[in-house]
Write a structure and sequence with these properties.
The complex is a heterodimer of chains A (113) and B (114). Chain A has 113 residues and is mainly beta. Chain A is built from no helices and 12 strands. In chain A, a hairpin with a 2-residue loop joins strand 7 and strand 8. Chain B is 0% helix and 53% strand. Chain B is globular and about 40 Å long. Classes of the chains: A mainly beta (113), B mainly beta (114). At the A-B interface, strand 5, strand 6 and strand 11 of A face strand 4, strand 5, strand 9 and strand 10 of B.
Chain lengths: 113, 114
Amino acid sequence: AQTVTQSQPEMSVQEAETVTLSCTYDTSESDYYLFWYKQPPSRQMILVIRQEAYKQQNATENRFSVNFQKAAKSFSLKISDSQLGDAAMYFCAYGGSQGNLIFGKGTKLSVKP
Amino acid sequence: KAGVTQTPRYLIKTRGQQVTLSCSPISGHRSVSWYQQTPGQGLQFLFEYFSETQRNKGNFPGRFSGRQFSNSRSEMNVSTLELGDSALYLCASSRGEPLGNTIYFGEGSWLTVV
C-alpha cells in the first residue's frame, strides 16, 4: 500500500522569505502523480502544484516549486517570497493507479509579518 | 466555470439518525469522489463514482454509501450515525481518466453528530 509522510507538523516563515515543506512517500508503482494542496481556514482544498513521476523536470507554478527526487521518493514544496495569504495547512498527496488520492497528515504553515 | 458545489455546508444530527450529503461536480467531470477529514485520522478516501458506478472504495463500514446520477451529481449517505462520524466531508471531481487526474475539491460539508 502507498503511504505519504509529512514529518513537519508545523512550520513558520517570515514574510518575503523562502520556506520548504517536506514530503516522502512509499510506493511500488512506476507511474503516479504527486500533488501539493493548500487548505486555508475556509477548509477548501486548493491545488498548488502537481508533478508527473515520469518527468524529471521539477514542476513550478509562480512562487511555488517542487524538488522531486524519485529515487529517494521525496517531494518537497518550496514557497518563495512568502506572503501572508500563504498561511494554511499544506497537504502532500499521492495519486496512483487506484485513482484516489492518498494524503499526508499535513503541515501547518504560519507566515509572520 | 463553476467549481465543485456541496450542500449542505453545515449540519447537526443526532446519534442513530442518517444523513445525506450532495455534490455537484465541475461541468464535464464524470468522476466524483468523497473524502472524510478528521483531526485524528486526517484525510481518508471514502469512495469514487464514475459514470454512475462505484469504481473504488476506501476502508469504511457499510453505513457509508453513495451514488451517482446520470448528470454526474453525487450523494453520500451515512446511516446510524455515530459520534465518530463528526467530520468535514469533502467532495472532489475530476475527468476520471485512468491516471493523473487533477482532482478539484468542494468547500466541504461539516457534519456534527451529537
